[in-house]
Inverse folding.
């Protein structure tokens, strides 16, 4: 158990809908990362937040957004969903802004039908 | 971050040592070698990391060559539960994200 908690574990939704994935980082960790893993793309970095502020951006679509709240939990919002958004979404956390070991949660499996 | 090259797949017998190679010939002096593994769609699990010295923890040993251009992750007594995709990642000191490649799919056979 990495200490990173993600909900929901599984989610099925229709195209065009919007979903929110939630992540609680390990106790004391200030950085939260979001990754997407689809069958044909591997693990892709989406975005990083540190202590409530966006710090790094990867291949995140404009239809996707994230935020980190004062209690340090984070949410990833996915809107106007398409079939191709079906994937595993992982949240990870680390103690500091950079350089520390990153620990991953168990993921949220999103299926868009 | 420097690029890494790993074999796409490997097999190992249960109870034997599993030795997973990784080439990172363009690594720079302030880049660390990290190893993670992912067991069938679970979250990537941190294993070990090092800069230039060999490292050992309760999960594995990491051997880095003197020129730092390659490394080997050693699972000393592989079990069936070690079947997973193993990722070798080179990460700049102070870097933020991890960049994953395709990894090595390790299968432990009974």
């Amino acid at each position: 158990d990495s200490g990173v908690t993600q909900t929901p574990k599984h989610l099925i939704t229709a195209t065009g809908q919007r979903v929110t994935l939630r992540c609680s980082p390990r106790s004391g960790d200030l950085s939260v990362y979001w990754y997407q893993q689809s069958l044909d793309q591997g693990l892709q970095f989406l975005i990083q937040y540190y202590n409530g502020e966006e710090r790094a951006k990867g291949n995140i679509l404009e239809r996707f957004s994230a935020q980190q709240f004062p209690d340090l939990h984070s949410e990833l919002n996915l809107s106007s969903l398409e079939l191709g958004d079906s994937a595993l979404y992982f949240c990870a956390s680390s103690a500091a802004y950079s350089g520390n070991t990153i620990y991953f949660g168990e993921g949220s499996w999103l299926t868009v039908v | 971050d420097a690029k890494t090259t790993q074999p796409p797949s490997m097999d190992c017998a249960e109870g034997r040592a599993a030795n997973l190679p990784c080439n990172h010939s363009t690594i720079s002096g302030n880049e660390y070698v990290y190893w993670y593994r992912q067991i069938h769609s679970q979250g990537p699990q941190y294993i070990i990391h090092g800069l230039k010295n060999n490292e050992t923890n309760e999960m594995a040993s990491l051997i880095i060559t003197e020129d730092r251009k390659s490394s080997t992750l050693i699972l000393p007594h592989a079990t069936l539960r070690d079947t997973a995709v193993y990722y070798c990642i080179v990460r700049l000191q102070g870097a933020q994200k991890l960049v994953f490649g395709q990894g090595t799919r390790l299968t432990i056979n009974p």
